[in-house]
Amino acid sequence: MRVVIQRVTSCILSIEGQEYNRIGYGYLILLGIDEADTPDDLEWITSKIAALRIFDDDLGAMNLDIRDIGGEVMVVSQFTLHASIRRGTRPSFLKAARPEFAQPIYNSFIESIEQKTECKVVTGKFGADMSINLVNDGPVTIFIDSKNRE
User: Residue 141: phi, psi to the nearest 5?
Assistant: First the structure.
């Protein structure tokens, strides 16, 4: 399981040119699900995200987590996070989970993030062609891979 987390001041997701969801200050989480992901990967990565301290305290140091600031979260399925360009320049997505496997994990991820962060969580639409307009705050962008637990 891979995620890209962007600290945002605002984020608007559109489908077919129409606004679908939006958040203010918080996280945009792009979620890539691997064919080998397990409940352990889900638990580990959602716990990391909920406890991630990337918001500034009164002294300007990154000491606060999403709960501390009462932030909002947007979760968007992003199979392209599992792109491989090992051979040539055209990406292969063979490691990305098939929709019938990925969608239940995506739904479980959303439920887990809601429970662990106690924040407002909105989503994109699984499998849809989406546009995201965001203001990356900082900018702060974090990549986490559950198969590489550094």
Answer: -135, 125
pTM over 0.85: yes
Q: What is the DSSP string of the chain?
A: -EEEEEEEEEEEEEETTEEEEEESSEEEEEEE-BTT--HHHHHHHHHHHHH---EE-TTS-EEE-TTTTT-EEEEEE-GGGG-B-SSSSS-B-TTBPPHHHHHHHHHHHHHHHHHHH-SEEEE--TT--EEEEEEEEEEEEEEEETTS--
The predicted model gives 124-129 an average pLDDT of 91
* CATH number belonging to the domain at 2-145, selected among 3.50.80.10, 3.40.50.300, 3.40.190.10, 3.40.640.10: 3.50.80.10
- Would you please indicate which residues are annotated as catalytic (active-site) residues? 78-80
